[in-house]
Amino acid sequence: NPRRGWYLRLLANPRVELERGGRSAARLAIPESSPETLRAVDAAFAAKYGLVDRWYGLLVRRGAVPIRLVPADPDARLD
Question: What is the three-class DSSP state of 24?
Fold first, then answer.
């Protein structure tokens, strides 16, 4: 939801650390709200979670914005 505090903080500072399997990597979090991306994300969630995702979408999710994590140089400046 684009009104959530975490999303607003992400816009102000998109540099994040992704941790998986005990390893971390610098990433930039980029909002990706193209219609194609929204359809692809919705289809992936529906395939994985089925009916639960449909109910959640109807009841809770409003104006969701997918976030793309891209590799970032941890020493690069973000101007």
Answer: strand
Angle between helices 51-59 and 35-49 (to 10 degrees): 130
Sheet containing 23-31: give its strands across.
15-20, 23-31, 67-71
In the numeric block, the tokens 């990597």 are attached to: 25
Dump pLDDT digits (tens) for 5-61.
Answer: 999 999 999 999 989 898 889 999 999 989 899 889 888 888 888 777 676 665 666
Tokens matching residue 75: 């020493």
pTM: 0.68
